[in-house]
Amino acid sequence: MADIHPQLLNDCLVVGRFSLCHLLLMLDANSPWFVLVPDREGVIEIYDLSETDQQQLISESSLLSKSLMDIFHGDKMNIAALGNIVSQCHVHHVVRYKTDAAWPAPIWGKYAATPYNQDEIESIIEKLRQAGLSGFRFADV
Q1: What domains can be seen in the chain, in order of their start residue?
Q2: What average pLDDT does the segment 46-53 reach?
Q3: Could you report how far apart the first and last alpha carbons of the chain are, in Å?
Q4: Which string of b and e fits 74-108 if b means at least 16 CB within 10 Å?
Q5: Other CB atoms closer than 10 Å to residue 37's CB: what's the count?
Q6: Which pLDDT score is estimated for 141?
Q7: What does the pLDDT look like over 53-81, one tens digit per residue?
Q8: Cα-Cα-Cα-Cα dihedral of 132, 135, 139, 141, to 10°?
Q9: Whole-angstrom Cα distance, residue 105 to residue 43?
Q10: pLDDT digits (tens, 9 = 90+) for 87-100
Q11: Cβ atoms within 10 A of the Cβ of 26, count?
């Protein structure tokens, strides 16, 4: 099992995992923002994954994206694998709204993070549970 980069653990809550990826919730209540982190040692870019793992990442990303749009009723799903600060391969999934403070620009650097309270986190976890994500196992959160 690959360790999750300390910066991701600082900025996120580990929600659980799919067969390939850990699912993290970014601790910023400005937008529903999740991160998939492939559980593979030494992977920096998506192309560093095996072809099978690349396909699995796309499958997990697509399932997550559709579920998040169903749960949060967004206008657009932003997906990005930037890695400029954290080199470990990870893929951001951000539900966007035409009414959000940064629209239509990217969210990075537009406003300070707003922390969730415990009730909000529990509500998000419950919504994910109700979504019935196929092949997903929840962490003890």
Answers
A1: 6-104 (3.30.428.10)
A2: 98
A3: 19
A4: beebeeeeebeebebbbbbbbbbeeebebeeeebe
A5: 25
A6: 64
A7: 999 999 999 999 999 999 999 999 999 99
A8: -10
A9: 29
A10: 999 999 999 999 99
A11: 21
- Which whole-number Å values give the CA distances from 106 to 5, 28, 90, in the listed order? 23, 15, 17
Q: Which two tokens stand for residue 44?
A: 């920096």
Q: How many helices (H) and strands (E) does the chain have?
A: 3, 6
Other C-beta atoms within 10 Å of 31: how many? 20
The token pair at 89 is 């391969």
User: Whole-angstrom Cα distance, residue 21 to residue 35?
Assistant: 9
- Evaluate if pTM is beyond 0.70: yes
What local confidence, expressed as pLDDT, does residue 108 receive? Answer: 84
Instruction: Name the helix (H) or strand (E) containing 129.
Output: helix 118-131
